[in-house]
Amino acid sequence: MGAEKLLAGQVLAFPTETVYGLGALLSAPVAIKEIYLLKKRPADNPLIVHIASPAQLDDLLTVKPSALERALMQAFWPGALTLILAGANEIAQRASASLPKLAVRMPAHKIARELLEAVGQPIAAPSANLSGRPSATSAEHVLQDFPVGLGAILTGSSGDFGLESTVIECSAENTIRILRPGSIVASDLAVFGPIEEIWLSGGSTSRPLSPGTKYKHYAPRGRVILFLDFAEFKAASRGDRECKSALLHHSSFPEPERSWSLQKKVSSSAEYAKELYGFLRSCDDLGVELIFCEKPQGDELGFAILERLSKAARLGD
Ligand code: TXA
Ligand code: MG
């Protein structure tokens, strides 16, 4: 189910182990254009191509992946790692926004894999949300953003991780550059070579390595306010008591006298990642104006979550 929709040139949504993807066959240029229209995605922001096996790279690239890239594929595929690979051919450039490099990932989710195997060819798929909105971790989220226009929404358990894949690029000197952090973290990758955390400085360069990093992301309609501890929370929340508010936190701190429209306590960074986008979307459903989010714990996954939260909280762009 779903394969025939793609083969007929339609766009459909499918679950992956990270977030839902909005997919079209790379061989269907009209459907790829439709993804951009549906998402209201800037035309210069490239898409990740999803493959069933590394053998499919032969049809996408004019250059063979390096030994390091192959080792990373072997270690982390199928899974939540996207590799930016050199030598995108003419067909691949339909997804790469004409860039010479292509983002590729082989997903692990059962439904995504069955779909890829059934169509027998690569599927270009960004996250299944309107540009700038929180990603979708359930079929309901997809439907909220795309009430019309999709050939199908395949339903399945929401992602294991809740955050988009880690995006990396290997330099000519075999440094692993992390362009977008995710659940595959620097210490997982460091076994394979030196790491450069490009995402930490990526927002400030005039020509970001990953075009998507320059756009507003993950943002609900309410204002996201980050805080480190109870003292910061108290300072940040003073004077806003009349607003409809929500709280996402992991520490136990003294309950202030405030009636929350929504309150969720998570017990780990893994749970924080899994709940984040659903929480932000529920805030929108309830018309929440102020969304207080405690900064995640200082583990590596916590940093990846903080990257998303910082973008969600960014004002004025
Ligand atoms: O987990 C995921 O990666 C999900 C699922 C559906 O696979 N997909 C996803 O796609 O998050 P999207 O389009 O929301 O994010 C892809 C990111 C964007 O920031 C984009 O700019 C970057 O990857 N990207 C894609 N192609 C690139 C390229 N050729 N060079 C540099 N960055 C690229
Ligand atoms: Mg996205």
Produce the secondary structure layout.
Layout: H1 3-7, E1 12-14, E2 21-25, H2 29-39, E3 48-50, H3 67-76, E4 81-86, E5 101-105, H4 110-119, E6 123-124, H5 139-145, E7 152-153, E8 166-170, E9 176-180, H6 186-189, E10 195-196, H7 199-202, E11 223-227, H8 230-237, E12 245-249, E13 262-265, H9 269-285, E14 290-294, H10 300-313
Parallel strand pairs: 1-7, 3-5, 4-8, 9-10, 11-14, 12-13, 12-14
Antiparallel strand pairs: 1-2, 2-6, 3-6, 4-5, 8-9
The structure holds threonylcarbamoyladenylate and magnesium ion.
The site of threonylcarbamoyladenylate has 28 residues, from strand 4 and strand 5.
What does this structure look like?
With 317 residues, the chain is an alpha/beta fold. Helices cover 28% and strands 18% of the residues. The chain has 10 helices and 14 strands. It has helices spanning 3-7, 29-39, 67-76, 110-119, 139-145, 186-189, 199-202, 230-237, 269-285, 300-313; strands spanning 12-14, 21-25, 48-50, 81-86, 101-105, 123-124, 152-153, 166-170, 176-180, 195-196, 223-227, 245-249, 262-265, 290-294. The N and C termini lie far apart (39 Å). Residues 126-127, 135, 164 line the site of magnesium ion.
List keywords for this structure.
binds threonylcarbamoyladenylate, ten-stranded mixed β-sheet, 18% strand, alpha/beta, 317 residues
Proportion of β residues? 15-25%
Task: List each distinct ligand once.
Answer: threonylcarbamoyladenylate, magnesium ion
Indicate the mean pLDDT. 92
Oligomer: single chain
Count the strands? Answer: 14
Number of helices: 10
Q: Secondary-structure element sequence?
A: HEEHEHEEHEHEEEHEHEHEEHEH
Radius of gyration: 19 Å
Q: What strand order characterises the main sheet?
A: 7-1-2-6-3-5-4-8-9-10
Span between termini: 39 Å
Low-pLDDT parts are 203-208
C-alpha geometry: globular
Please state the structural category: alpha/beta
Largest sheet: 10 strands, mixed
- Which percent range fits the helix content? 25-40%
